[in-house]
Design a protein that fits this description.
15 strands; HSP40/DNAj peptide-binding domain; about 375 residues; 3-stranded mixed sheet; about 25% helix; Helix Hairpins; 4-stranded mixed sheet; binds zinc ion; alpha+beta
């Protein structure tokens, strides 16, 4: 089945602002909401719109989608799943957006629903980002209360039909406005739209219907992970309702900075201090890389800020697994605390025009080697 482009679904262009996305979504969600629109395909259209919004309103997901289209996240380093298969309570979305809305909750009460996703941030060291690794996090996972099976009631007999809405979950409010009297349907404020009230709450979950359990989750830190990279762990979210599947766990990484290396995508940049004679005469230098020291030859007459590339000593690319390069920026250090002999040598040098005289290097070389 070919999927429509998310931008096309929302009728916006690729440069749309967050505000554009939001207003396009609001408009279409109103148009296709199954309580409003009775056309056969309204619900599937609504879901399509909702999914497009879900992705494009999240800057990370949007960036991934822009780069990889519908493939985003399917073959990403999170693996598995992908964006399809969103399961959500239309009314939750609708009410959170439009403040109210008609309720279908009473009919959906026993329908299986996917558990909520969990989002966690994880801080990793620069070394962990270089080499990858494993880390354990603790997370609270909500699951259906086993005592009341999610009803929140002490016993079945404690579940009563809401007296205010007679179980419909909605009430009609009459208002006087400029256009006369209007009648609007809104969520029942006594039962919150469920159509039911609980006389005596379940002791285990205090009437919530769910209980939080602390779980330890082992997270594989991908080699080459960067700030704000997101790892999706399908099925590690909150447990589903009424036998629905569990949600997903999203790990968003924060990578600590290195004292030595500056990261530019997959490449690393470092500054390497060399002495004036090393720069003038050339030398073989020992260069630290995240994978151990390497040797680097610099030619005679190397200028400060000259950059040398050490191939394959950068960060791993998350997708291709190829390593970037390390750029070594030479920094010639002006000597301090010169000895008498050194001072004399520099004094001798200063009498000559260093910028023009080629032979001065030879002279300098022969003097310093003594
Ligand atoms: Zn309970
Ligand atoms: Zn009610």
């Amino acid at each position: 089945m070919s999927k429509r482009d998310y931008y096309e679904v929302l009728g916006i262009d690729k440069n749309a602002s967050d505000q554009d996305i939001k207003s396009a979504y609001r408009k279409l969600a109103r148009k296709y909401h199954p309580d409003v629109n009775k056309e056969a395909d309204a619900e599937s259209k609504f879901k399509e719109v909702r999914e497009a919004y879900e992705i494009l309103s999240d800057s990370n997901k949007r960036a991934q989608y822009d780069r990889f289209g519908h493939q985003a996240n399917q073959q990403g380093f999170g693996g598995g799943g992908g964006f399809e298969g969103f399961d959500f309570d239309i009314n939750d979305i609708f009410s959170s957006f439009f403040g109210g809305g008609q309720q279908r909750r009473s009919q959906q009460q026993n329908a299986p629903r996917k558990g909520q996703d969990i989002h966690k941030r994880m801080r990793v060291s620069f070394e962990e980002a270089v080499h990858g690794g494993k880390k354990t996090i603790r997370t609270t996972v909500y699951e259906e209360c086993t005592s009341c099976h999610g009803s929140g009631a002490h016993s079945k007999d404690d579940i009563k039909t809401c007296s205010k809405c007679n179980g419909s979950g909605t009430i009609t409010v009459e208002q006087q406005s400029l256009f006369g009297r209007t009648r609007t349907q809104t969520t029942c404020n006594q039962c919150g739209g469920s159509g039911k009230t609980v006389a005596r709450k379940c002791e285990t979950c205090a009437g919530d219907g769910v209980v939080g359990k602390e779980k330890k989750v082992n997270v594989n830190i991908p080699e080459g992970v960067d700030n704000n990279n997101q790892l999706r762990m399908p099925g590690f979210g909150h447990k589903g309702i009424n036998g629905g599947p569990p949600g997903d766990l999203y790990i968003v990484f924060e990578v600590e900075e290195s004292d030595t290396f500056e990261r530019h995508g997959d490449d690393l940049v470092m500054e390497l201090p060399v002495t004036f004679p090393q720069a003038a005469l050339g030398d073989e230098l020992k260069v630290p890389t995240p994978y151990g020291n390497v040797k680097l030859k610099i030619p005679a007459g190397t200028q400060s800020h000259k950059t040398f590339r050490v191939r394959g000593k950068g960060m791993s690319n998350l997708r291709s697994k190829r390593k970037g390069d390390l750029h070594v920026v030479i920094k010639v250090v002006t000597p301090t605390n010169l000895s008498k002999k050194q001072t004399k040598l520099f004094e001798e040098l200063s009498t000559t025009d260093l910028t023009n005289d080629e032979s001065i290097w030879q002279k300098f070389k022969s003097k310093i080697k003594k």
